[in-house]
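Long-time lurker, first post. I've been practising inverse folding by hand and with some scripts of my own, and I keep getting stuck on stretches where the structure tokens seem ambiguous. Below is the full token string for one chain I'm working on. Before anyone asks, I'm not after the true native sequence, just a reasonable design that respects the backbone. If someone could post their per-position residues I'd love to compare against what I wrote down in my notebook.
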């Protein structure tokens, strides 16, 4: 077999990985005997491993490779030119052209008055920075507010601040005590609500809950409410009508900043540059990362308004926060090229145009007895799995473990599909391919998921 990496045969890669590489969120013990997947190249929506096996990537890396894997030459050229011109300089007390151009480009794409851009290296840093910015904004205006409110089961990253904002107990508990203080409101999961509840009643119920959480914490202690427009963890929870305008109104009434975490939804996944546009919400802060460069670079950003920046424009005032690599010129050049490609190849329009096709293709899966609910928007879906469709009864923790980790994930992989079965809330299969996926890719995904779930149903 040909070497897939200089100096390492596939067998040597396996051994070196076992000896040296610590994988993220991975039960490393599971690979003591089993072969570790080593992905060596990508093209379009497909990946290839070190054994030459092809996979359809129904997860776009990690909800990130929005333009797919085939733009390496073009983006590599932009990175190369930037490397030659200026491989690095910081955004601390000075600037460089690519950061300025990217800030202006992002400001033009972001909805409404979101025109100020602070660059970071990824999603967790964006969340971390947004919380710090919110805290310092209130301090600068003479108010001591430090708390954040987010939602149950939401994932917002892993650094201590971002982790503290997460609403997933299993991720939080090992690292307690966390950063004070975060409280969690209900998320917009409608599947398990009473069937007779109208959308309007559901919205009211959620907003009352949020109001209750804010009251219990003390509204004047809360710096920021952080929510994804469509919540990923738990399975693509879309907001009911009127929800975000209600959240905006509550935040305004209590002087709380509203942050939309668009780390996944930003840059096209929902069929708009920012999902806030679709749901007609004007946040004070937006966090973004993955799609900003389609994951060709490690770059993220906090985007905010003149209102939030104003206290920092006074002569002796500054946001006391910075990251060496935030707005790295090569990362900015890559993100600029990514956005140019997305515009030129009409990637975001394409998601809107294909949305009905995506949904109707995936809806075929609802015929399976194990498939309870399909939800999501744009090119971002989740299929909730249930034991009993009539009663919507879910699986116990043990059953989830056996079904998801023990059967579904390895089976998808075995059949050439990279697709996540997730049990951070009720068990779901997440479907979020590169935004260039067409009918053929959706048919293939649906076929494989359907076959594997049919087998899973028979096992239950
Ligand atoms: C909504 C959301 N926010 C924040 C993050 C953290 O991003 P990163 O992994 O780049 O730190 C993620 C990562 O998946 C995410 O999905």
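-- Answer (accepted) --
I ran through it position by position. Result:
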């Amino acid at each position: 077999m040909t070497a897939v990496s200089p100096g390492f045969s596939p067998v040597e890669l396996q051994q070196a990985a076992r000896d040296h590489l610590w994988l993220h969120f991975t039960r490393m013990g599971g690979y003591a005997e089993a072969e570790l997947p080593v992905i060596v190249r990508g093209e379009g929506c497909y990946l290839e491993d070190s054994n030459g096996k092809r996979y359809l990537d129904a997860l776009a890396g990690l909800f990130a490779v929005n333009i797919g894997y085939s733009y390496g030459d073009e983006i590599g050229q932009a990175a190369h030119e930037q490397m030659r011109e200026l491989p690095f300089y910081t955004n601390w007390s000075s600037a460089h052209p690519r950061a300025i151009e990217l800030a202006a480009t992002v400001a033009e794409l972001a909805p409404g008055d979101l025109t100020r851009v602070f660059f970071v290296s990824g999603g967790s840093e964006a969340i971390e920075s947004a919380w710090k910015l919110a805290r310092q904004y209130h301090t600068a205006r003479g108010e001591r507010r430090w708390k954040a409110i987010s939602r149950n089961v939401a994932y917002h990253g892993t650094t201590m601040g971002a982790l503290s904002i997460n609403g997933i107990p299993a991720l939080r508990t090992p690292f307690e005590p966390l950063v004070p203080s975060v409280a969690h409101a209900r998320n917009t999961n409608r599947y398990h609500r009473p069937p007779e509840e109208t959308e309007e009643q559901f919205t009211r119920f959620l907003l009352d809950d949020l109001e209750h959480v804010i009251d219990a914490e003390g509204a004047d202690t809360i710096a920021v409410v952080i929510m994804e427009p469509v919540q990923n963890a738990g399975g693509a929870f879309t907001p009911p009508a009127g929800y975000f305008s209600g959240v905006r109104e509550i935040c305004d009434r209590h002087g709380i900043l509203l942050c939309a975490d668009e780390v996944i939804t930003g840059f096209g996944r929902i069929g708009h540059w920012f999902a806030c546009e679709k749901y007609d919400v004007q946040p004070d802060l937006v966090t973004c990362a993955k799609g900003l460069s389609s994951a060709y670079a490690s770059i993220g950003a906090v985007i905010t308004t003149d209102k939030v920046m104003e206290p920092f424009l006074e002569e002796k005032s500054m946001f006391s926060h910075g990251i060496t690599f935030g707005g790295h010129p090569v990362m900015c050049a890559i993100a600029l090229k990514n956005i140019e490609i997305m515009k030129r190849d009409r990637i975001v329009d394409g998601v809107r145009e294909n949305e009905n096709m995506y949904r109707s293709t995936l809806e075929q899966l609802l015929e399976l007895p194990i498939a309870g609910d399909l939800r999501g928007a744009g090119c971002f879906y989740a299929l909730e799995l249930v034991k009993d469709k009539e009663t919507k009864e879910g699986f116990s923790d043990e059953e989830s473990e056996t079904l998801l980790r023990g059967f579904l994930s390895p089976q998808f992989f075995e059949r050439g599909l990279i697709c996540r079965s997730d049990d951070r809330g009720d068990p779901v299969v997440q479907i979020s391919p590169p935004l260039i996926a067409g009918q053929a890719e959706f048919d293939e995904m649906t076929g494989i998921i359907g076959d594997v779930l049919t087998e899973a149903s028979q096992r239950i």
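A couple of notes from the structure itself: The pocket of pyridoxal-5'-phosphate is lined by residues 62, 122-124, 127, 155-157, 228, 232, 261, 263-264, 289 (CB under 6 Å). Residues 18 and 33 are 10 Å apart (CA to CA). Happy to go over any region you disagree with.
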